[in-house]
Amino acid sequence: MAEPATETGTRRRLPRLRVRLRELYYGRSPRAVRFRLSVIALDFLLIGFFIASPFLREYPAYLFIDYFVALILALDLAARALAYVSLRDWLRRPSVWVDLFVLVTLLFPLWLFNLAFLRVLRLWSLFHSDFFWETVGRRYDDTRWEDVTKAVATLVTFVFVSTGFVYASFAREHPGISGYLDALYFTVTALTTTGFGDITLPGAWGKLLAIIIMISGITLFVRLAQTLIRPYKVRFTCPTCGLMRHDADAVHCKACGTLLNIPNDEV
Questions:
Q1: Is domain 1-139 annotated with CATH 3.40.50?
Q2: H helix intervals, the chain
Q3: Are 183 and 170 in contact (CB under 8 A)?
Q4: How much of the chain is in helix, strand and coil states, percent to nearest 5?
Q5: What is the DSSP secondary structure assignment for residue 115, as one 8-state letter?
Q6: Mean pLDDT taken over the chain
Q7: More confident site: 245 or 94
Q8: Residue 252's closest CA among 267, 236, 264, 229?
Q9: Could you say which DSSP state residue 11 is in?
Q10: Please, what's the largest Cα pairwise distance for the chain?
Q11: How many other CB atoms are found less than 10 A from the CB of residue 82?
């Protein structure tokens, strides 16, 4: 029994679509680079919307924009899934689960209102993705600038996520936090351990949250300082012991003594 023509056509078109998407997302042609730059620019617009969302919720057009952003993100995730060689391996990537969670909050904005602040995790997933560094940051891939950018992105993401926790937990219960800006102000003062004392979170949960913000903030600042100050080590896997970090001018692996051939830009 012959298969329907429409089903046969669909089976033929799907592999072609996957090949085209794989070329656009992972290819080296000028067309593929332009496409990825457009996708990254769109990512920055989405992140800007996520950061501005607490200030836009009162406007009537907010839900329309929210669902439109959800459609864009869903199409992007579907295209990335088709472009990837193995769907199972694609689903194992932490950034994919971050994006899927962001998509769920966009699809159900009224029910997941208190979790909407976690959408800013998209900022972290973007700057920690190979997609970004192989396109925009290819000149700085596997350099000190990559580590510094990732550390800054992690710190900024933590600030906005913590602000969202404070706002969602205390905005309607604490008189000192009347809006999102107050929550951001408290987060920054706690994170920098300045502690002016004009806003203090009540109860055990408030104290615990302040402690988490202070300890995590110090850790992230130390991490950022380390990436700026400490001697940079290049990423090059030793063929014998597998050590991945070496001094930029290393000739032998410090772990096993194997002769290394680390590529550099020197003539």
A1: no
A2: 5-26, 30-56, 62-83, 87-91, 94-107, 121-127, 130-133, 144-170, 180-191, 203-229
A3: yes
A4: 65, 5, 30
A5: G
A6: 79
A7: 94
A8: 236
A9: H
A10: 78
A11: 18
107-128 residue pLDDT tens: 887 777 667 677 888 888 888 8
Question: How does residue 71 score in pLDDT terms, banded at 50, 70 and 90?
Answer: very high
Domain ranges across the chain: 1-139, 143-230, 236-267
**Angle between helix 30-56 and helix 62-83 axes, rounded to 10 deg:** 150
CATH of 143-230, one of 1.10.287.70, 3.40.50.150, 3.90.79.10, 3.20.20.120: 1.10.287.70
Tokens for 151, please give them.
Answer: 């550390």
User: Which token pair is 122?
Assistant: 């998209």
pTM: 0.69
pLDDT score for 137: 63
CB 161 within 8 A of CB 120: yes
Angle between helices 62-83 and 5-26 (to 10 degrees): 90
* Consecutive H or E run containing 121: helix 121-127
Average pLDDT over residues 212-219: 86
Which carries the bigger pLDDT value, residue 236 or residue 181?
A: 181
In the chain, the amino acid numbered 190 is: A
